[in-house]
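As a warm-up, study this chain.
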Amino acid sequence: MEEFLQVLGTIGLVFLVVVGALAGLIASGAEGGRNKVRNVAIGIVGAVVLPFIVALLATGVLAAGGLLLMIVIALIGAAVVLAVARMLFR
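Now compare it with the structure written out below.
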């Protein structure tokens, strides 16, 4: 896990937070502008958590893919968590 954190670094973490925030804003727009703060927070959580889970399962794959792969995984994580939250909060 330490290896992943070293590879990720501060800039990578900032990218993940930005990707999650953007995913949350897009989800809010799709819902008609409601719950912006909640969606942004949930998007950030999903975008940060999934790369860590992938790193725990297969550190080499994520490190070899670089920042672009981390951003793609962050988008997937944000989308999944936002979809689950939308189903829960209906």
